[in-house]
Write a structure and sequence with these properties.
The protein is α/β, with parallel strands linked by helices. Helix content is 36%, strand content 18%.
Length: 605
């Protein structure tokens, strides 16, 4: 039986194909269109999934959409009527797409796919819950889903048991922790629905000066983690912005203009919003534990991508184990919707041996053979060296040791927002200058942004205060104290962005200013070649980790194809590109004249 799950029309459109309950393929539309967070109908993603499954569209038994458009339209309409005439502009702007596509989702799916079979719909938070429980290794677990808003729900918790999930309680729009966080993302100068992780990365440069103000004026939080927003400070219910003049007056500063300097006050605001968010999540998690009595917790929804909060949940919450859906946002809804039909609707038995392998380390997207890669390289007239597979780990380890930055393109593309050693840019974490080099000359992004380490699973506890699987880069943990550098009194007293250039540890390129790191643990069974490369680096240096950042430049999605990878390689000051068995040296490449819009925003030294 084949089931196609689809998420579309809000952000991060995606498709997923199940065959007899197994995830055959899952990918975001952005990987094909090169439009970051593409929200259009995921026709390219669907076509890839069908190709990977070796089926035609009418071989599908079911197509399922990840939320219920009628109920979402009801929210839009009733919210406008409750606030009329305020909100008329945003209501009018939303109407054309609703009347053309969103409202008639069944017809849109039939038309886009030329599909004549059965179409089903799941509720938004039901899809999130299914996406984190069914692929988890737990036969029973509590789940908690937190995002901006689905149909009406913004937060839900419940229990997953066997092949069923049951939502026990919900928080409804307009009260939303996701929208609360997005409002501060907007106010600190980053783009909503894509810049939240930037604010999370900025927060450690600030001080939590405004926590009490936020809790007193903006959000009322109960001991069980439930909350109410003071809507006087927000504009998202009736307007086209996230915050309003009252919000600005409260903090005595206007929203930061994108690309403008980040002053200390915005850093303090970011830190305060992050701290409040963590407090709320911890209260929620403890309440969910008390109400469900389960030892395991599954997390999904866009807020579950807040890996700093996840790390605190792991360390401080009463649950024994946690599992976070790696595509926790709307893209993962495509997986959740498909799995909910297979288990919840059709009642299929959940085989726990299959469940624990269902996500396949999130390597669920397109792959390219050596033959396809070589054909592409030759079409570009690009000089290359063919490296035998057995020599790749040592060759790349030596290049990293020589302080080269390398594009790593191997196997199936990752599903979700993180590069996990399939479409990655890698480097030496021991270099004190590598963070700045990779941010400004490779990624073309803000210098304060931290990089993540990919670390051998069995060695993670040697460097970090954590001994736990984190294959999806969704947990932050502190660096062990014996790996930290003793700071001078002058360095300890630095504030804000001045903290950036201080060497803090044995692995400064992956150590954030608060001595934390967003960790990806690498097990050989998940990605043998990537593991062997890191292990080779460890054997030569005694350091069992490398820098891993996503293979893309600022404003673009992670690369998918050899063409995407080559273009990104040539546009940046990356030193080498490894695709399959083929190694390209930048110094040997012909002149590349194509320019990207992102180049206009930075002056490279």
């Amino acid at each position: 039986m084949h089931i196609l799950g689809i998420s579309a029309f809000y952000h991060d459109s995606a498709a997923c194909l199940l065959k007899d309950g197994e995830i055959i393929a899952a990918v975001q539309e952005e990987r094909f269109t090169r439009q970051k967070h593409d929200s259009n109908f995921p026709i390219n993603a669907v076509n890839y999934c069908l190709k990977e499954g070796k089926i035609a569209v009418n071989d599908l038994d079911y197509v399922v959409f990840y939320d219920k458009p009628f109920i979402k339209f009801e929210r839009l309409l009733l919210t406008y009527l409750a606030n009329a005439p305020f909100g008329f502009r945003s209501f009018v702007q939303a109407m054309p797409l609703w009347l053309k596509e969103k409202f008639w989702m069944g017809d849109t799916i039939k038309k886009e796919l030329d599909y004549k079979g059965k179409i089903l719909f799941t509720e938004h938070h039901e899809s999130h819950a299914a996406s984190c429980f069914y692929p988890s290794p737990f036969s029973e677990a509590a789940f908690l889903t937190i995002d901006g808003v689905g149909e009406w729900t913004t937060t839900s918790y419940g229990i997953g048991s066997g092949n069923q999930i049951k939502i026990l309680s919900e928080i409804k729009f307009p009260h939303s922790l996701g929208l609360f966080y997005s409002a501060f993302t907007y106010f600190t100068g980053f783009k909503v629905n894509s810049g939240e992780y930037k604010m999370m990365g900025l927060a450690p440069y600030g001080e939590p000066k405004y926590v009490d103000l936020i809790l007193d004026k903006i959000i009322h939080v109960k001991e069980d983690g439930s909350f109410r927003l003071n809507l006087q400070y927000f504009d998202y219910v009736v307007g086209l912005k996230m915050t309003n003049k009252r919000f600005e007056k409260l903090f005595d500063i206007p929203p930061r203009k994108p690309e403008s300097p980040v002053t200390q006050k915005y850093m303090d605001i970011a830190r305060s919003a992050q701290d409040v968010t963590e407090q709320i999540i911890l209260k929620m998690v403890k309440h969910v534990y008390n109400q469900t009595g389960k030892n395991n917790l599954c997390l999904a929804g866009g807020v579950a991508l807040n890996c700093v909060a996840n790390g605190r949940v792991l360390r401080e919450a009463p649950f024994k184990d946690i599992w976070v859906q790696p595509a926790a946002g709307d893209a993962g809804g495509a997986i959740g919707a498909a799995l909910q039909i297979w288990y919840g609707y059709l009642g299929n038995t959940r085989d726990m041996n299959l469940a624990s392998q269902l996500q396949k380390a999130s390597y669920l997207g397109p792959s390219y053979s050596n033959e396809e890669i070589e054909q592409f390289i030759k079409s570009k007239g690009a000089p290359y060296t063919e490296i035998p597979a057995g020599n790749i780990p040592d060759t790349i380890a030596d290049l990293i040791i020589a302080h080269n930055v390398i594009g790593w393109f191997q196997g199936r593309c990752e599903f979700g927002p993180r590069a996990l050693g399939s479409r990655s840019i890698i480097g030496d974490p021991r270099s004190s200058s590598m963070q700045s080099i990779m941010n400004l000359k490779i990624k073309f992004r803000e210098s304060f942004r931290p990089f993540a380490p990919s670390v051998l699973r069995e060695k993670v506890a040697d460097f970090f205060e954590m001994d736990y699987d984190s294959p999806y880069m969704l947990l932050v943990a502190p660096l062990k104290r014996d790996k930290r550098r003793q700071m001078t009194a002058e360095e300890e007293n630095l504030f804000g962005i001045d903290k950036l250039n201080v060497k803090r540890s044995d692995v400064p390129a992956v150590t954030h200013v608060d001595y934390s790191a967003r960790i990806q643990t690498v097990a050989r069974g998940d990605n043998p070649l990537y593991y062997d490369m890191i292990n080779a680096f460890y054997g030569k240096t005694g350091c069992p980790l490398v820098i891993n950042t996503s293979f893309n430049v600022r404003g673009e999605p992670i690369v998918c194809s050899p063409e995407d990878a080559y273009r990104c390689f040539m546009r940046t000051k990356m030193d080498y590109l490894l695709m399959g068995n083929y190694l390209l040296d930048k110094k040997e490449q012909p002149v590349f004249t194509e320019r990207g819009d992102w180049e206009k925003e930075f002056t490279l030294d």
